[in-house]
């Protein structure tokens, strides 16, 4: 096991080296500039679209635009928001949270672009369901079947061995065992049963669950986090100051961050940030492609808010609580145990229960969302005949996920995440002109409509 861990650590260090970090952040910066800092200028509009009444029911697609967003959020709001933030700060100090913010800011432009392309180039499979995402726009837009197949293969591996199964199941098992004393086999049995019941129904079943659970679980966890922050309000400014200062000067943080370079802190924050919000990874576009919508730009705007909610809002709550309570510097704590301890210190005896319940909801919905992602990648490679075997294998991996070592889980997740991101980022750079053209055309049409309405309203007065 030690030799395998060392090998995976070496592979992980290579995959997540400076070239990939530069490609991830660089792509986000490039798209941000080409789109005119859309994540600031268009965020209010994007948020209004999320909460507006669904008008896409007569358009092509499998689920409503909001359900598509909830499906994507079900996959992104997971252990990365609780366990992943703790892992990042334990490894890179408080400054890692700052680099998660930076990655998320530029990642919003990346998420917008990849989801726009997913809707523009989507196709129907033999069952009449929408198939879209990087594997489709890499082939139909960029003209590279090789990159498309690489992405689909890596997508299946991420679903099987990365974000989709092991990381989520293991995190639920740890939290349930620590807080409620539930044995590993009990967690495995319950999760396997629930996942089987939902995933065999396909995207519509997954979306129905996501639409109901995601808003509730996010509000529940945010409410608990706000209680902790309000109860300890005087310590929040110092925690935020330490986060920002140690991002550029790791020695400003005590204990675990001593001796670290800024690059190490950046790597920890960006890698864990990508694990959390999945911007650039190419996963969310697969859900976006299922939306009933007649506008790829509109769905791109809705999808962009996913990164905002995931990292700028939820991960920030977790990270500030961890830094504020000082548990990040306790070498005896890791993952869910660290976050449990932070909430226990912040709000008393109910803290661990809050974290455990939140983690269970987050991780369970992530399992559902990634089942769909892997299924669409399987459909692209093998056709609809591969769906049932894929689902059975996925359910089997969920069943054994509670018995896999945590360190190996995170290493595997990081490695396959990086491999999945590479072909997608190449596609985004190659198709950036399409993204810009579609965006300009959409907003030009909106402006023309507003001008026509204004002129029409003025006509009676002129008469």
Automatic annotation (TrEMBL):
Q: List keywords of the entry alphabetically.
A: Cell membrane, Membrane, Symport, Transmembrane, Transmembrane helix, Transport
**Ranges that cross the membrane:** 13-33, 66-92, 98-119, 146-168, 180-201, 213-235, 247-266, 308-328, 354-373, 393-413, 419-437
InterPro entries, per this entry? Na/Ala_symport
Q: Which residues form a coiled coil?
A: none
Report the locations given in the UniProt record.
Answer: Cell membrane
Q: Which Pfam families match?
A: Na_Ala_symp (PF01235)
* Highest taxon of the lineage: Bacteria
Q: Where is the signal peptide?
A: none
Its membrane topology is listed as: Multi-pass membrane protein
Q: What are the record's GO terms for cellular component?
A: plasma membrane
User: Which Gene Ontology MF annotations are present?
Assistant: amino acid:sodium symporter activity
Q: Which NCBIfam families has this protein been placed in?
A: agcS
Which family does the record claim for this protein? Belongs to the alanine or glycine:cation symporter (AGCS) (TC 2.A.25) family.
Query: What's the name of the protein?
Result: Amino acid carrier protein
């Amino acid at each position: 096991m030690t030799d395998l861990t060392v090998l995976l650590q070496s592979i992980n260090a290579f995959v997540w080296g400076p070239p990939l970090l530069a490609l991830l952040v660089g792509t986000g910066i490039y798209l941000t500039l080409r789109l005119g800092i859309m994540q600031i200028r268009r965020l209010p509009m994007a948020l209004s679209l999320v909460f507006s009444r669904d008008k896409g029911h007569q358009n092509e697609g499998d689920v409503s635009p909001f359900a598509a967003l909830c499906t994507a959020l079900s996959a992104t709001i997971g252990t990365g928001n609780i366990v992943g933030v703790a892992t990042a700060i334990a490894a890179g100090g408080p400054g890692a949270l700052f680099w998660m913010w930076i990655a998320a800011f530029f990642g919003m432009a990346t998420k917008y672009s990849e989801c726009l392309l997913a809707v523009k180039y989507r196709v129907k499979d033999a069952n009449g369901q929408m198939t879209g995402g990087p594997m489709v726009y890499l082939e139909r837009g960029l003209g590279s079947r090789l990159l498309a197949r690489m992405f689909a293969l890596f997508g299946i591996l991420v679903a099987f061995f990365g974000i989709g199964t092991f990381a989520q199941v293991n995190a639920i098992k740890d939290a349930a065992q620590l807080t409620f004393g539930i044995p590993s086999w009990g967690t495995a049995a319950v999760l396997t049963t629930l996942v089987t019941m939902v995933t065999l129904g396909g995207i519509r079943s997954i979306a129905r669950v996501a639409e109901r659970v995601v808003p509730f679980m996010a509000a529940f966890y945010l409410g608990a986090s706000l209680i902790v922050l309000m109860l300890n309000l005087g310590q929040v400014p110092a925690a935020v100051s330490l986060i920002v200062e140690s991002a550029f000067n790791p020695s400003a943080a005590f204990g675990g961050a001593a001796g670290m370079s800024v690059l190490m802190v950046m790597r920890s924050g960006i890698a864990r940030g990508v694990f959390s919000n999945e911007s650039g990874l190419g996963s969310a576009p697969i859900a976006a492609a299922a939306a009933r919508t007649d506008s790829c730009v509109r769905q791109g705007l809705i999808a962009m808010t996913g990164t905002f909610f995931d990292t700028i809002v939820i991960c920030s709550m977790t990270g500030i609580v961890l830094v504020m309570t000082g548990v990040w510097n306790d070498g005896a704590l890791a993952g869910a145990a660290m976050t449990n301890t932070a909430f226990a210190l912040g709000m008393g005896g109910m803290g661990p229960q809050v974290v455990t319940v939140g983690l269970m909801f987050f991780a369970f919905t992530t399992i559902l969302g990634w089942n769909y992602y892997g299924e669409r990648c399987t459909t692209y490679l093998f056709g609809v005949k591969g769906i049932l075997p894929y689902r059975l294998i996925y359910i089997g991996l969920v069943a054994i996920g509670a018995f896999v070592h945590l360190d190996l889980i995170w290493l595997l997740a990081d490695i396959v995440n990086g491999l999945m991101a590479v072909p997608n980022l190449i596609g985004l750079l190659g198709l950036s002109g399409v993204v810009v053209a579609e965006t300009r055309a959409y907003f030009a049409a909106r402006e023309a409509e507003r001008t026509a309405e204004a002129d029409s309203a003025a006509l009676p007065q002129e008469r």
